[in-house]
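Lipoprotein: structure, please.
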Amino acid sequence: MFRAKAARGLFLGLLAGVAGCGIRATDVPVDGGPAPTRASCEAPSAAEGTEQTDVFLVCGSKVNPVHRAIEYPAPVSGEDGRAGAVSERVAVAEALLDELEATPRREERAAGFSSAVPEDLGVSGPIPGDPAGVLRLSERPSDLPAFALGQIICTFANSSRLGDGGQTVVLGGPPGEPRGQPRTYSCSTAMRTSPDSGQPPGVGQKP
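Here you go.
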C-alpha cells in the first residue's frame, strides 16, 4: 500500500515538473519537419554545344558562374567594319541576356541557383558619341536590382566576345536618359560575393 502511494506521488511530481517547464504532455508524435538544407551552389555540367560560356546566377548571397552551351546568332551578312562589329556584339549581348532572363534549368534550381534579371530587359548598341564597346540597357543600370546588375556585369565582362578578360564592361542606360550615361563596371570580388552590399558597382569613371 505504501509502495503504491509512493509510486503515484512520484508520477504526479513528474507531471508537475513537466507542466512547470512549459511543456504540455501529449500522446501525439510531433513532426518537426525536415531538417534545414543548404544550397550546394555547385554548377551542373553544361550540355554539349557550340561554345561554353559562363552565365552568372544568384546562389545564396553571391553571384556564381554556371556553364552554359550557347549557340550565338551568325553575323548579319552585308555588314562590315564598325557597323558589323557593333551588330555582332549586340547579338551576343542579347543571347546572354536571354539566358539570364530565363528560368534556371532544373539541375541549377536544385543546386540553389536563381536569377534576378527582369524578363523584359533589353540591350542595344552605342549611340552617336558613345565609344564602340558600349552596351546600353533598356533600364538605367542603377535602377536594376543589385543582384540583377551583378549578374549582367559579370556575365558580360567574362564573355570573350564582350568583356576584357573577365574584369570590366561598359554599360549605359536608355538613350536620352540624363543619368544613363555609359560607365565602366567591374566584376570584382566584392561584386561577386556581396552584390547587395550597397557599394557602387562601377569603377567610378566614364569610358
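Notes: The two ends are 96 Å apart (CA to CA).
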